[in-house]
């Protein structure tokens, strides 16, 4: 009898989910499979707080399973930081950490699926993350993920250009001299302010195209363009609550990244689950959409 090591066991779990994109729409979306444009609601700060509370509840329900799942993200962050802490790549250390906010929606796709499965079955497990690969929308999810990765790489390129024009182009001799130059020279302050402005622009762009895009594609048969259009509509209709939400995400990721990224073990899963519940509040669920469609049809019959 062969006793599998942890990597073999995980590979077996992934294989058991069958072929990528193998689930039919009826299997994956048992509630409704309408392709109509989603309806966006207006939400309040109370909804944002409740989404965070529900995210904490999902995290607590999954216990160490969620922590185990998300350990890979802090580990990657630590490895990247160690690699960039030498020579020429040192100025990209902070942009790399800050860039977690740009790829966070992609990294949290499995967490969205965990919360979705809890709604459907009343149970939650990190094994539910592997069910994402069977989604009929896996192609669109992958496409949006590649777009976010592209924006992340573009952000790093912009950060490098800002450094070259303000502090460079020569790499800093040491981390101490780099930090001193950043905080004690006019060039350093120009670099940080320009980086902050660029980071805000990238952040707003990512929020606009992805705040509900991944949850939407997991929840119903929405394509790439529909998901992005809905996400933009969510931001335009709820600028205040979404601004607060974005600040919460940015501050949480920053604080979580400070102690060698260890805090992200908790921050990432909580924010991931909370994003799913924020989506639920701001976009009318498929079941409610069907009721709205039926009610609209009845009203038309009465008026006719």
Description:
The chain has 304 residues and is mostly helical. It has one domain (47-126, 134-294). It has 16 helices and no strands. It has helices at 6-15, 25-28, 45-62, 64-70, 72-84, 93-98, 100-107, 109-121, 138-166, 175-184, 186-210, 213-219, 224-237, 239-257, 264-282, 286-303. Helix 7 (100-107) runs antiparallel to helix 9 (138-166). The longest helix has 29 residues, at 138-166. Residues 292-303 have low confidence and may be disordered.
Summarize this structure as a short list of keywords or feature phrases:
304 residues
Number of strands: 0
Helix content: over 70%
Instruction: Please state roughly what percent of the residues sit in beta strands, choosing from under 5%, 5-15%, 15-25%, 25-35%, 35-45% or over 45%.
Output: under 5%
Order of helices and strands: HHHHHHHHHHHHHHHH
List the total number of helices. 16
What is the total number of structural domains?
1
Shape: elongated
Question: Can you summarize the main beta sheet?
Answer: none
Radius of gyration: 21 Å
- Average predicted confidence as pLDDT: 79
Unreliably modeled segments? 292-303
**Structural class, from secondary structure content?**
mainly alpha
Distance between the termini: 72 Å
What would you say about this model in short?
The chain is mainly α. Helices cover 72% and strands 0% of the residues.
Secondary structure blueprint with pairings:
Elements: H1 6-15, H2 25-28, H3 45-62, H4 64-70, H5 72-84, H6 93-98, H7 100-107, H8 109-121, H9 138-166, H10 175-184, H11 186-210, H12 213-219, H13 224-237, H14 239-257, H15 264-282, H16 286-303
Helix pairs in contact: 3-15, 4-15, 7-9, 8-12, 8-15, 9-11, 9-12, 10-11, 11-13, 12-13, 14-15
